[in-house]
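Example record for the data management plan.
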Amino acid sequence: MFTGIIQAIGKVREPEQLGNGVRLTILTPEAFGLKEVKIGDSIAVNGACMTVVNIQGNEFQIEVSAESLNKTCGLDTFGEVNLEKAMRLGDRIDGHLVSGHVDGVGMVESMEKVAESYRLVIRAPLKLSPYLAYKGSITVNGVSLTINEVEDTAMGARVAINLIPHTVEVTTLKRLREQDYVNLEVDTIARYVERMMALREAETDDLF
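Corresponding structural encoding:
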C-alpha cells in the first residue's frame, strides 16, 4: 500500500526489452534513500506498484510485464517518473490509501495556471465514472489528489483538480500538457461502496 505522497522524482535510464515487457533502470536522488530498500520490495512508479529486482548505488531496476504495459502509460520509455516506497505499518497517511494498481489511463484536456495554483482537467475512462465524486480522492501518476469538479459525459468523466504550487514543484505533474496520458487509480473505498450497492440492488431484484 501507498499514500500517494511522492517522495522523489526518478529518471528512467535504460529501457531494455524483456520478452513482451521491459526492464527499467531508474536513477534516484540520494534523499530517496535506496539504502533502506531491498530486492523484492515494492515501489510505486508513476502510480504503478512495481517490484525491485536489482539495486546498485542510487539506481534500481524493475521488470514491467506486457500486461502492466497494456494497463498503464509511461513505463516503457525514457523520462521522469514519480516514486514512492511502500508504506510501513504505523506510517502516517498524509494522502489517501493507494494500492498501486492502475485502474485506467486518462487523457489531459488542459493544465493551466490560475492565480497561484494550477487547474488540471482530465478525461477519465467511462468505466471509472461511478468511482469519481466531488471532493473524492483520485491518484494521478501516483499523486494523491482531490477532485474539485466532475462532469459525466458519453465519453467518460471530465475531472477537474486544483494543484497547489508545492505539488507541481515536487512531482512530474509540472510536465503535463494537453493530450498527455496519465495513470489513474480510483479511491479504494469508492470501489467497495460500488460493489456493496450493486449487491444490494441484486438482492432487491431477487425479491420481485
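Summary line stored alongside the record: The mean pLDDT is 93.
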